[in-house]
Amino acid sequence: MLINTLKSLFPMAVPGIDYVLQDDGEDAYIKTWNLSASQPTAAQLSAGASAAASAAAQKNQIAMVSAACASALTAGFSSSALGSPRNYPSQDTDQRNLLNAVTASQGQASTWNTARWCANNVAWSLASHTAAQVQQVNADWLVFRVAAQQKYASLVTEINSATSVAAVQAINWSDKSKATNEAHHRAGFFIYAKTH
Asked: For the segment 110-121, what is each residue's pLDDT rounded down to a tens digit?
């Protein structure tokens, strides 16, 4: 713990050269101090240890929030492009397929259509979408994606502003839609994602 605190307080210092630590079976302590800066006091080391613990907690919590955001982004989204809410998959391949469909739909006649995977809360199927409908699905995906990214950015700001390890660890994704998506997975609504 002391080594991490010193690395945090003196990031350019080289352990073993600029300072030497010793542990006689109780707690580690600074045996030799070779830096031009004053050796830190016990109070400074305690404050540094607290800051280092907060920084480590922030890094871990941001990684957890990032993973939760990535999971939310690939758990699917809802669009009413076909007139009623339907679930659409959003794994990486699904995102590329949607982008390709939207690109192909540009400037097409009103009779143009393409099939898109979606679920009507009962079963997955390839449903026909007009150019306007596939563009609406993409617009709904964009709203969903940007909302998740904004939530992530907001949580990162909260995490970086938290002043204790406990406060940092209390900040998490906790997404109602994730629970809904997990329930859909258990009910078989997202079975398609495992077979394509």
From this structure: 999 999 999 998
- If we measure between CA atoms, which residue out of 83, 78, 81 comes closest to residue 184? 78
Residues 95 and 182 in one domain: yes
* List of residues 6+ apart from 128 with CB closer than 8 A: 113, 114, 115
Domain of residue 164: give its range: 74-195
Determine the Cα–Cα distance for residues 10 and 64; give it in Å rounded to an integer.
28
Q: CATH number of the domain that 14 lies in?
A: 3.30.56.60
Indicate whether 50 and 120 sit together in one domain: no
What is the maximum alpha-carbon separation in the chain?
82
C-alpha–C-alpha distance, residues 112 and 107, integer Å: 10
Question: pTM for the whole thing?
Answer: 0.73
